[in-house]
C-alpha cells in the first residue's frame, strides 16, 4: 500500500522538493502575518488549535517517513523548522491574545489554580513559555551556534506536546472528560519508540529498473551488462537482467540470479537502524566509531556505509569505509574537520545514539588472488585498507605504506604492528620521527613485480600522482578510493 501512496504522491513530492526554499519563505511569511491577529485579541482563540495541529504534524512527519516509509514525509522533514516557527508564532498569538483580551483574569489566582488543581490556562502558559526558545532557535544560525545543545534543547518539544494535551484535556474536563487526546498521545509515543528503535512497518517497493541497468554478483563482483549479455551461456546482447532465464548462473562463480543486486556506483540498499556502541578519539582529529546494527547483517563484505544524518536542516548522507566488521558491529575511522557538516554531527554523538545507515557494496575491494599486494594509505584512508589487510589469510604477504603529517596524527599503529606478515612502513611528512620515514611515499622507489596489486586510499592528490606514475610504468592492477 505504501508504494501505491508514494506513487500517487509523487507529483506533490516533486513539487515540494523543487520549491522547498519558497515554501519555507511562505511559512515564515505566514508567521509574520499571524502576528497581525494580535490587533484583534478576541479572535486569537482559533490560533491555539492551529498551533496544536501543526505541532502534531511536525511530530508525526519523521514517524511517517521512517516507520511508514512515506516519501512525502521525508521530503517535508527539512521544512520542520519553518513549520516550527509558524507553530510557535501561532501559539504565541493564542497565549498573548488571551492575555491582552482578559488582563484581569490573568492577574487573578484562579488563572493558575482553581478547584484545588492547576488550571488549563496555567498548563498552556507553561507550554507557551517552553515553545518560545524553540521557536527562536529554529534557524541554521542557531543550530550552528548551539552545536550539540541544539538537539538537546529541541527535545523539550516532547514536554510541550504532553502539556498541550493536558491543556486540552483540562479545558474540556469541566464539561466532559475526553480520553481521545490522551490515547492519541500514547499512540504517538508508541510509534516514536518504533522510530527510535529503527523498526519499519513497510516493505520496500518493487523497483522498476531503467533499461540497461547493470547487475552485480555479490559473491564474486562479476557485473552483468545487458549491452554485452552472456554469450557463452546463450544470453544475447541486449537482454535485460529480468529477461535472463531463472536457471542461468553467474559465469564466474556459478551462483543464481538471486545473488545479484542492481549495480550502481554505490550499492545503496535499505536504510538500517544502528546504535553507537563506542566512540573514542584516536588523536585530536580522528575518531574510532563502532556501531551495532539492529538487524543481522548479510554475510556479504561491505566496503563502506552511507550514514543518513539529519541536522534538522536537510537530511544528508556521508560515506565512511568499514575498518572492521564483526557480526553486527562495524568499526569506522573518521577524520573530524572543524567546518564539516557531518563532522559537526559526529563530534556531538555519544554512545547509545541511534543512527541510520545504508550499506554499500562498493568497488574498492580486495582481489582474491595470490598476487603480491602493496597498500598505500594516508590518514583515515587507512580504514578500508585495514579491513582488507585484516581479512587476508594469515600466511599472506603484503606491504603497507601509511602516511601522516605528524606523529600525533598517527593511529592504529599497535594494531598494524601486531599483523606479523605485514611489512609496515610509516611515513611522516612534516617532522622527523624516530622509527618513521621522513617525507611522502614515492612509488618509484618501491620494488614490485609486474603482477603486483596496488591499493590506494586517502588524499586525492597523493592517489592521482602515484597512480599516474604506476600506470606509466605499465602496472594494471591498481585499485583506488579517494576522500
Ligand atoms: C566511499 C567513501 C568512503 C569514505 N570513507 C571515509 C572514512 O573511512 N573516513 C573518513 O574520515 N572519511 C571518509 N570519507 C569521506 C567522508 O564521507 C566525508 O566526505 C568527510 O568525512 C567530510 O565530511 P564532512 O561532512 O565532515 O565535511 P563537509 O561538510 O563535506 O566538508 C568537506 C570539507 O570542506 C570543509 N568545509 C566545509 N564547510 C566549509 C566552509 N564553510 N568553509 C571552509 N571549509 C569548509 C570541511 O572542513 C571539510 O574539510 C569517505 C568518502 C567516500 C566517498
Note the main attributes of this structure.
483 residues, Rubrerythrin, domain 2, 6-stranded parallel sheet, 17 strands, binds flavin-adenine dinucleotide
Rg of Cα set? 29 Å
Give the uncertain stretches in residue-range form.
none
Number of discrete helical segments: 16
What small-molecule ligands were found? Answer: flavin-adenine dinucleotide
Strand order of the largest sheet: 6-7-10-9-8-11
Shape: elongated
Q: Helices and strands: which structural class?
A: alpha/beta
Overall number of structural domains: 4
The percentage of residues in β strands lies in: 15-25%
Mean pLDDT value:
86
- Euclidean distance between termini CA atoms: 40 Å
The total strand number stands at: 17
**Helix content bin:** 25-40%
Largest sheet: 6 strands, antiparallel, barrel
Mind explaining what this structure looks like?
The protein is of the alpha/beta class and 483 residues long. The chain folds into 4 domains: 2-196, no CATH class; 214-263, Rubrerythrin, domain 2; 271-360, Elongation Factor Tu (Ef-tu), domain 3; 373-482, Rossmann fold (3-Layer(aba) Sandwich). The chain contains 16 helices and 17 strands. It has helices at residues 2-8, 10-18, 20-35, 45-66, 71-76, 80-101, 103-107, 120-136, 140-146, 148-154, 156-173, 180-196, 341-348, 382-391, 413-417, 460-472, and strands spanning 113-114, 117-118, 214-217, 223-224, 260-263, 271-283, 286-293, 304-310, 315-326, 329-335, 354-360, 373-378, 398-404, 422-428, 437-438, 453-458, 478-482. The strands form 4 sheets. It has a 6-stranded antiparallel β-barrel. The chain has a 6-stranded parallel β-sheet with strand order 15-14-13-12-16-17, with helices on both faces. The longest helix is centred in the first third of the chain and has 22 residues, at 45-66. The chain is elongated, with a radius of gyration of 29 Å. Bound molecules: flavin-adenine dinucleotide. The site of flavin-adenine dinucleotide has 20 residues, from strand 9, strand 10 and helix 13.
